[in-house]
Amino acid sequence: MATMDQLKEKVLSCTACKLAATRTNAVFGGGNFHARVLFIGEGPGQQEDLSGLPFVGRAGKLLDQMLDAVDLSREKDIFITNMVKCRPPGNRDPQPDEVSTCIEYLHEQIRLIAPQYIVCLGRVAAQSLIDPNFRVTKQHGQFIEKDGTLMMGTFHPAALLRNPRQKVDAFDDFCKLRDRLLESEASL
Ligand code: URA
Q: Would the pTM count as exceeding 0.70?
């Protein structure tokens, strides 16, 4: 198994799918790879493509506020990455062939991090990793065990920027995550 650094090298120079031709930087992910929680978004946007860092645009700022509100820090408590590591042009959804080419990198990240919890931000991640028919509005906040990892889908922060009314439900999901983390810490 590759180390995290070796995997990062591979991702940053990857040309395995057509997104490589239009990206500025591949975005590996960031945070603490010893964390108990892995957050997975959809794919880099413009700011992420330019900086090479995950969730640094408006959606990322909102995510930071939500994490902060439940006392979780990006640097210490989570690692965050995306289904695809390169920006889909114009922020379109990543296409199935792009996801299936890139997913091996995500699987390697999951093996290396071995998180207790995986939070899927939005439909693309939740449908790929939890259930192909996952409906975020109906199933958000439910924890489902898969291969020893507890998986939860919630709203993508970019969707919350478009539909601020859903922030209440999303915040509730973040509280559930925080409560579970505190419970499992207490039982260690
Ligand atoms: N949206 C995502 O899904 N990922 C990012 O890194 C930024 C915005």
A: yes
H/E element holding 121?
strand 117-121
Is the C-beta atom of 54 inside 6 A of ligand 1?
yes
Q: Is the minimum distance from the CB of 29 to ligand 1 under 6 angstroms?
A: no
**Tally of domains within the chain:** 1
CATH number, position 174: 3.40.470.10
Atom of ligand 1 nearest to the CA of 27: 6
User: What's the average model confidence in pLDDT over 64-88?
Assistant: 97
Residue 19 domain flag: no
Atom of ligand 1 nearest to the CA of 125: 3
Structural domain harbouring 53 = 4-8+33-186
Residue 41 within any structural domain of the chain? yes
∠ CA 147-94-39, rounded to 5°: 40
Residue 25 lies inside a defined structural domain of this protein: no
82 CB within 6 A, ligand 1: yes
Residue 54, domain member (yes or no):
yes
Query: Mind listing the pLDDT tens digit for each residue in 23-38?
Result: 999 999 999 999 999 9
Give me ligand 1 centre to Cα 144, in Å: 23
Q: Are 7 and 66 in contact (CB under 8 A)?
A: no
pLDDT per position as a tens digit, 114-130:
999 999 999 999 999 99
CA distance 174 to 180: 10
